[in-house]
Amino acid sequence: MQQFAFIIHLSRNLHLINIQLMSDLKRLFLAIPINDHFEELIKLFIGQQEIPKLRWIPAENWHITVLFLGDFPVRHIPALISSLHDFFRTQQWFSLDFDRFIYKPKQTKPTMIWAKFHQNSYFNLLCQQTADHIEKFYSELSIPFSMSLHSENTPHITLCRLKNPHLPYPDFKLKDINPLQPLLRCDICTLYQSVLTAEGAKYTNLADFKLMQN
């Protein structure tokens, strides 16, 4: 009986420790925000689709991911923000050219819908150099670094995650709109906190970083 009570006590303590550890971490990522024009463009696209039972990602969550950091120690966030301010001052701003709305990863077996931009060497370089900077910053703080990047990073906005296994998504052709759109100026990168809830992810802007101007 005493052994059983000890196990319950230990289990409760471990649960409390786990809660404490989770409260000491924040789920972070870096992303480029979009402007009002592209927000209206996406809303127009969504309004034309006829795919049933879709749960579109809300407009306040639309962004172009640069780097997902994952769980990060709260106590080091001020130092992270200061380091990123210095880093992004050395990065040249650029523009992205919109491509089209597509199923991803494949038309035949999609799991997402994207607003896709054309490949861009400046965006790809920004992703790689940001990862290099974060890896060095983590090393200085003795934080394990386990992030990996694709050789080419496609700028995109995730609009929907297709989770219904019974719907033949490829049978529903996406109703595209005029692909000729103005360029998206990328001169700000934002550090967001992501909190997962029953209603979906909730994002909080922790800091904005200006990229170098001409």
User: How widely separated are the two ends?
Assistant: 74 Å
CATH architecture: Alpha-Beta Complex
Trace the largest sheet across and list its strands. Answer: 2-1-8-9
CATH class: Alpha Beta
String of helices and strands: HEHEHEEEHEEEE
Uncertain segments: 13-22
| Strands, count | 9
Strand content: 25-35%
Which structural class best describes the helix and strand composition? alpha+beta
Largest sheet: number of strands, sense, barrel closure: 4 strands, antiparallel
Oligomeric state of the chains?
single chain
The percent range for helix content is 25-40%
Mean pLDDT: 89
Using the coordinates shown, work out and report the CATH topology. Answer: Cyclic Phosphodiesterase, Chain: A
Number of domains: 1
**Number of DSSP helical runs:** 4
Anisotropy-based shape: globular
Query: What would you report as the Rg, rounded to the nearest angstrom?
Result: 21 Å
The CATH H-level homologous superfamily: Cyclic phosphodiesterase
How is this structure best described in words?
The protein contains four helices and nine strands. With 214 residues, it is α+β, with helices and mostly antiparallel strands. It has one domain (26-210): Alpha-Beta Complex (Cyclic Phosphodiesterase, Chain: A). The strands form three sheets. A four-stranded antiparallel beta sheet has the order 2-1-8-9. Strand 8 (188-197) and strand 9 (200-210) form a beta hairpin. The radius of gyration is 21 Å and the shape is globular. The model is unreliable at 13-22 (pLDDT under 50).
